[in-house]
Design brief:
This protein is of the alpha/beta class. The chain contains nine helices and nine strands. The chain folds into two domains: 137 residues, Rossmann fold (3-Layer(aba) Sandwich), CATH 3.40.50.2000; 69 residues. The protein has a six-stranded parallel beta sheet, with helices on both faces. It has a three-stranded parallel beta sheet with strand order 7-8-9, with no helix packed on it.
C-alpha cells in the first residue's frame, strides 16, 4: 500500500472563501485521495493535536498571526517537514493608498524573514517571481485557473427586460483608490445613456455612484461558491 503524502494547510481564512478556494481548496481537490491527504490546521496547537506529523505544511498568504507562523516554521525545521509559502500578491510593496498599508509596512521585515526560511514559495505570475526571488531562490509559478465545476456558465436570471446594457464591477473596498480613475467615465456614461444602462456593483461601490439612477449594490460576499452563483446569475454585458 502506497504511503499517503500528508499536507497540512495553515490559513487563518475559511478555505471556502475566495483566495483559499482558488489557490488551495480547488487545486487540492484534483489530487488523488489515495495518494494525498490534506488537513486544515489553523494553529500550531491544532497541528500538535493531530495523531501524526505531515510531510508538507502550506502557508496561505494571510499572515496576520506572524508569531504563530514563525513557531510553525521552526517546528517544521526540527521535524524535517517541508514548508511552502503560497502568495498571490505583492505584499511587500503594498501602496500607501491601500487600506492595509499600515499593517504590511509594520510586518514587512518579519514576512521577508519567513520567505527566506520556507523551502518553497509559490506565486501566480512570473512578475511576482521576479520580486520574490530576492528572498528565496526556490519559487514556482502556479497560475490562477478557473474551476469549471464552480463556474458552470452564464445563467442570466437577472437580465433587464427592457434591453438595457449591464455594466458590472466586482471587488473589495481595498481597490477604492484605483476605482477613482474610472468614476468620471461611468458618470459620463450614466448621463449620456441614462435609460440604456444599468450598473451592478459587488463588494464595493463608491459614494459618487450612489447618486446615479439604475444602479444596484450587493455587499462583499466571502464564500466563493455563493459569489460565483450570484455573478453567473447577474448577466453582465461589461465587467
Amino acid at each position: 500500500m502506497t504511503k499517503k503524502t500528508r499536507v497540512w494547510v495553515f490559513s487563518l481564512a475559511d478555505l471556502n472563501t475566495c483566495a483559499p478556494r482558488i489557490r488551495l481548496l480547488s487545486p487540492f481537490s484534483y489530487f488523488p485521495k489515495e495518494e494525498f491527504e490534506f488537513v486544515y490546521a489553523p494553529s500550531l496547537n491544532a497541528i500538535l493535536r493531530l495523531p501524526y506529523l505531515p510531510d508538507i505544511i502550506v502557508f496561505h498568504r494571510n499572515l496576520y498571526r506572524l508569531q504563530e507562523i514563525g513557531k510553525i516554521i521552526e517546528f517544521a525545521r526540527r521535524h524535517l517537514i517541508k514548508t511552502v509559502m503560497e502568495i498571490d500578491d505583492l505584499i511587500t510593496h503594498v501602496p500607501a493608498q491601500h487600506l492595509s498599508h499600515p499593517f504590511y509596512q509594520k510586518t514587512k521585515n518579519f514576512m521577508i524573514e519567513s520567505f527566506k526560511k520556507v523551502d518553497i514559495i509559490t506565486v501566480t505570475t512570473n512578475r511576482l517571481k521576479e520580486y520574490y526571488i530576492e528572498y528565496n531562490s526556490n519559487i514556482h509559478v502556479l497560475p490562477n485557473l478557473i474551476d469549471e465545476r464552480i463556474w458552470t456558465g452564464r445563467r442570466g436570471k437577472e437580465k433587464p427586460e427592457d434591453g438595457r446594457i449591464t455594466i458590472g464591477y466586482s471587488g473589495s473596498p481595498t481597490h477604492a483608490y484605483d476605482f477613482k480613475k474610472v468614476i468620471p467615465a461611468l458618470e459620463y456614461i450614466s448621463l449620456k445613456y441614462a435609460d440604456k444602462i444599468f450598473f451592478k456593483f459587488f463588494g464595493y461601490m463608491p459614494d459618487e455612484m450612489r447618486a446615479i439612477k439604475n444602479v444596484s449594490y450587493i455587499p462583499l460576499i466571502y464564500l466563493y461558491q455563493e459569489y460565483a452563483d450570484i455573478l453567473m446569475d447577474s448577466n453582465l454585458d461589461f465587467a
